[in-house]
Amino acid sequence: MSLTLLRNARIFDGTNDGLSEPKSILIENDRILQIDPSESIEAVDQNVDIEGRTVMPGLIDAHFHAYASDVDFVKLEKLPPTYLAQRGRHLMEDALRRGFTTVRDVGGGDYGLWRALEEGWIQGPRLFYCGRAFSQSGGHGDIRPPHEDESLCGCAGRGILAERVDGVDAIRKAARESLRKGAHHLKIFVSGGIASPSDPIWMMQFSEAEIAAVVDEARRRRVYVAAHAYTAETISRAVRLGVRTIEHGNLIDSAAAEDVAKAGAYVVPTLATYEAFRRSGVEDGVPQHLLDKLDEVASKGLDAIRLCRAAGVKLGFGTDLLGPMHKHQRDEFRLRGQAETPFQVLNSATGINAEILGMEGQIGCIKSGAFADLLVIDGNPLEDLSLLHEDSTAIHSIWKSGKVVPLQ
Question: Strand runs (DSSP E) across 106-244, as ranges?
Answer without folding.
Answer: 126-129, 133-135, 162-164, 186-189, 225-231
